[in-house]
Specification:
The chain is mainly alpha-helical. Helices cover 74% and strands 0% of the residues. The protein has one domain. The protein starts with a helix and ends with a helix. Keywords: Membrane, Transmembrane, Transmembrane helix.
C-alpha cells in the first residue's frame, strides 16, 4: 500500500493516542457512582461506555496496523 510517510505517522500517532486516553477513562467510568446500581449491578451507563471504549480501541488497533503496514 502506498501512502506518504507523514500520513502513516499520523495513523500511528492516532493509534497511540487512543491507547493512552481510553484505558484511564474506563478506570474513571468504573469508579463513577453511576456505573453501579444499589445492588452493585452494572448500569447502562457502564455498559454503554465500555462498549464505546472497546470500539475505539478496536479502531485504534486497525488504524495502528494500517499505519505500520503503509510504512513498508
Amino acid at each position: 500500500m502506498d501512502l506518504p510517510v507523514a500520513w502513516s505517522l499520523v495513523l500511528i500517532v492516532t493509534a497511540i493516542w487512543n491507547f493512552v486516553i481510553w484505558p484511564p477513562f474506563l478506570k474513571r467510568v468504573r469508579k463513577d457512582e453511576r456505573s453501579r446500581d444499589a445492588a452493585g449491578n452494572a448500569t447502562t451507563f457502564l455498559r454503554v461506555h465500555t462498549i464505546l471504549i472497546a470500539i475505539s480501541l478496536a479502531l485504534a488497533v486497525a488504524v495502528g496496523v494500517l499505519g505500520i503496514v503503509t510504512l513498508f
